[in-house]
Amino acid sequence: MEDIEWEYLDEDSLARVTKLELNSKTVYTPSHTTTIRDDQTYSAVVGTNRRTPSINVAGEMLTKSTLDLIGKNIDTANDLAGRLIGKKSTSSRDINFIYPRIPKNYEVKNGEKKTYTSIPKIDELQISSLAHIQLQCSADAIIPPIPSAIRELDLFKDILSRTKNEMQTFKKEKQPMMGYIPNIDDRGLVIKMIEEYLKKPYECRIFGVDFSGSSNNPQLMFTVVSTLREKLKIRKNRGDNERYYLHVFNASVSKKSEKLISPVSDLLTHLYGVDSVSGVIWGGGGGNPDNARYIQISDYGAYRKDAIKGHVNCSCPVCSKYNVEQIYDHAHYLDRLKVHRMSSYREEYNRIAEKIRLGKDKAYSPYVKHKTQTLKDVERIIADVREIKARTGG
User: Fold this and answer.
1) β-strands 2-9, 16-22 pairing
2) Are 362 and 203 spatial neighbours (Cβ–Cβ below 8 Å)?
3) Does residue 226 sit in helix, strand or coil?
4) What is the CATH number of the domain that holds 120?
5) Cβ atoms within 10 A of the Cβ of 238, count?
6) Domains of the chain: total
7) Which of the listed ranges 44-53, 116-125, 154-163, 167-176 does the model predict with the highest average pLDDT?
8) Binning pLDDT at 50, 70 and 90, where does residue 114 land?
9) What distance in Å separates the CA atoms of residue 156 and residue 346, rounded to the nearest whole number?
10) How far apart are CA 199 and CA 181, in angstroms?
11) Residue 116 phi/psi, 5° resolution?
């Protein structure tokens, strides 16, 4: 039910223009995914709707009380399903990933003392219920409910098997399953997980990696991308190569930093061959407008207010109407900054796709190397990509 076509490939990186057809819906990447809340914010600030087919992530970080009751209490499952359905895109052209996320740990308070308890396991009732909820919500790809703190391969295999069984019960056995990889430190387990996803009866070709709010996550990306390319025997200049689609969840927009200017990070994931990204925003400012960050596409810098001077060189719906002081001096300054970022990213993704299509001296890699705030990160990722290509034969 999915068709993945790599239409154009960048010469020096793994960036590409991908056409994804999934359940009679078509999107083109590279792209940044949206949420219903993003769309609502855009409409409120700009006065018009965002309308290009895209991937929508309807996600929720599960609380401990919700996770404890899932599979055991029907009201808890129905309430979660209702919340996730409410976060789905209402456009029939958008692809929806339904993402009930199990975090790595939960905070436990004992008086004034805080401790954290990890959740490395879930039981069969929780597995079946979380898979069932995605099917109930008509997800376009089913994400196995892998705990972020998983440690055991046998548990992982059991989660995949039970997720597949739920899909068969729902008569959705032909529905794509996403090869979901949480942000775990055990790289050997990551490799074994990918190997399992590629086997029958799963044969996953849509993969999702969770960054857990980190920026770029080079070790995890190196492991995932090199393993996929090796196991699928992807080689340079071969027309019959297997194709895969790679999404990143929870990537930070920029590096967490106290500096006035911090490098943007989510845009750089495409150098690794990431097709789409959904993010969390570092630098929201904690209620202090002076600390909230403005994205400069010209140099890939995330600027705090004091680092920006005057009216910036941007023609998005926000910046064409307000100068910097007016953007920040408003009760809904975060909404204005979000819409600026969404609009700037949309233009930048069109630009990136065009660079990849043109190739040679006008290609994407030379273009991104001129982004001064992210130059060191770009050079490191390009070095990683060269090693990945050398290991996997192109």
Assistant:
1) antiparallel
2) no
3) helix
4) 3.20.20.105
5) 11
6) 1
7) 154-163
8) confident
9) 36
10) 16
11) -130, 135
Taking CA atoms, 192 is separated from 108, 224, 243, 270, in Å, by: 32, 11, 19, 24
CA angle 206, 207, 211 (to 5 degrees): 150
Cα-based distances in Å from 351 to 147, 245, 339, 379, 393: 37, 21, 18, 20, 29
**Parent domain of 94:** 2-392
| Distant-in-sequence, close-in-space partners of 210: CB < 8 Å, separation ≥ 6 | 101, 148, 180, 181, 182, 183, 248, 249, 250
Condensed to tens digits (0 to 9), the pLDDT of residues 1-53 reads 799 999 999 989 999 999 999 999 999 999 998 787 777 887 878 766 665 77
With 0-12 CB in 10 A as exposed, 13-18 as middle and 19+ as buried, what is 382? middle
Torsions phi, psi for 341 (to 5 deg) = -65, -45
Q: What are the tokens at 294?
A: 């403005």
- 139 φ/ψ angles, rounded to the nearest 5 degrees: -65, 145
As a whole number of angstroms, the distance between CA 301 and CA 295 comes to 6
C-alpha span between 22 and 94 (Å, rounded): 10
**Does the global pTM surpass 0.85?**
yes
Please answer whether residues 283 and 302 qualify as being in contact, where contact means their C-beta atoms are separated by less than 8 angstroms. Answer: yes
DSSP code for 294 = E
Which of the 8 DSSP states describes residue 380?
H
Name which residue leads in pLDDT, 261 or 311.
261
Question: Could you report how far apart the first and last alpha carbons of the chain are, in Å?
Answer: 28
Taking the C-alpha atoms of residue 160 and residue 153, their distance in angstroms, rounded to an integer, is 11
Pick the more confident residue, 112 or 98.
Answer: 98
- Residues 180-228: tens digit of each pLDDT: 999 999 999 999 999 999 999 999 999 999 999 888 789 999 999 999 9
Averaged pLDDT for residues 240-249: 90
Instruction: Look at residue 284 and tell me whether its pLDDT is greater than 80.
Output: no
- For residue 146 the two structure tokens come to 């892998």
CB-based burial of residue 278 (10 Å sphere; 0-12 exposed, 13-18 middle, 19+ buried)? buried
366: tokens are 């030379």
How far apart are alpha carbons 131 and 142 in whole angstroms? 7
Torsion of CA 292, 297, 301, 304, to 10 degrees: -20
